Amino acid sequence: MNQILILTKNILAEQEIQQKLQALNYEVYCSARMLETSRQQVEMLEFFNFFQYVILSETICESEVMELVPLLRKQPIRIIRKVEAKVTEMDHQYLEEELLHAIISNEDSVDELRECLSNLKQQKNELAYENRNYVQLSDKVSLIRPNVLHKGLTNPEDNYQFLEVLHHLSTTETRILSILLHAGNKVVTRETICHQIWNEDVNKSHLASLSSTVTRIKTKFEATNLTNKAIQTLWGKGYRINPELLDRINKNDTLHTLVSNG
User: Fold this and answer.
1) Chosen CATH of 133-260 out of 3.40.50.720, 2.60.40.10, 1.10.10.10, 3.30.420.240
2) How far apart are CA 38 and CA 68, in angstroms?
3) What single-letter DSSP state applies at residue 84?
4) What is the tens place of the pLDDT at every residue in 40-95?
5) How far is CA 108 from each of CA 15, 74, 105, 175, 256, rounded to the nearest angstrom?
6) Cα–Cα distances in angstroms (integers) from residue 13 to residues 2, 9, 21, 43, 47, in the given order
7) Cα 248 from Cα 200, distance rounded (Å)
8) 83-134 pLDDT, tens digit each
9) Rounded Cα–Cα distance for residues 77 and 48 (Å)
10) Taking the mean position of all CA atoms in its chain, how far away is CA 210?
11) Residues whose CB is less than 8 angstroms from the CB of residue 156 and which lie 6 or more positions away in sequence, other chains included
12) Predicted TM-score of the model (pTM)
C-alpha cells in the first residue's frame, strides 16, 4: 500500500480529498503539526521517507510552498499541490520547472485522482531513461537505420538519438509534439492543445496535465544535442516548438512521419 502525507493548516479542509484517496486504497496521513516541524527542523525531513507522495494543501500560501519544495525535493517523494479550483500561471510554471509533480483539487473525481497518481508512479519509473545522456537503440529503431537516416543531415548518430526519443514518447506526448509541429513557428495556446487532445471543454485538470506532459517531453529530448529546450514556453501565451527541432524534423522524412502520425 502506498502512503500519502497531506500537509495542511486545517485538517478538516482535507476530509473530502482524504476519503477519495482512501477509496483508492491509499494510506493517507493528514498533519498540520508536521508542516511547521518540517519548516523549522531540517532533520525532521527524514520522516518523509515513509511516504511516496506529499500533498501541499491550498491552505498553505505560495511563499510557504516555495520554502517547502526545495527541502522536499531532497527526498524521493512526489510533490503534489492541491488548489481549490483555479490553477494559476505560477502553478503551471512550478510544474514545468519540475518544482511540483502534479496539481489536484477537491473537485477532481476518484477516476482523475487514480490516473494522476498512476502517471506519477510511471514517471518515477522512467527517470532511469530520462537521466541517460545517450540511449541505446531499440530493435525497432535499428530496423529503419539503412538509408533514410542519412538524408539531409550531417551526423546520422544524432538522428538515432532523436528517433530513440520519439519512440519513447507516450501517445499524448507525441500528439502534443505533432500539434506544435503543424503550427510551425506559431505559438499555440494551452487551451487549443487541450481541446485537440481531449476533445472536450478545457478544465483545470487538462491544463495541469498538459504542463506536466510538456515537462516530460522537454526532459526526454535532453538526451539529444538540441541547443535549447524542445518546447518553448511563452507565459500567458502558450507553447512553440524549438525552431532547431522543427527544422530537423521537417528535413527528415522518418522523423516527420513519426511525429505527424501522432
Assistant:
1) 1.10.10.10
2) 8
3) S
4) 565 566 788 889 999 999 999 888 888 888 888 888 889 999 988 667 777 777 77
5) 14, 28, 6, 24, 37
6) 22, 9, 14, 28, 23
7) 32
8) 886 677 777 777 777 788 888 888 888 887 887 888 777 666 655 444 443 3
9) 8
10) 8
11) 149, 150
12) 0.60
Which grid cell sits at 164? Answer: 530513440
Give me the residue spans of the domains in the chain. 3-125, 133-260
Phi, psi of 233 (to 5 degrees): -100, 125
Can you identify the CATH homologous superfamily of domain 3-125? Response regulator (3.40.50.2300)
CA distance 79 to 76: 10
pLDDT of amino acid 193: 93
Bin 238: left if φ > 0, else alpha if -120 < ψ < 50, else beta: left
- Domain 3-125 shares a fold with domain 133-260: no
d(CA 39, CA 17): 24
Judge contact between 149 and 252, C-beta under 8 A.
yes
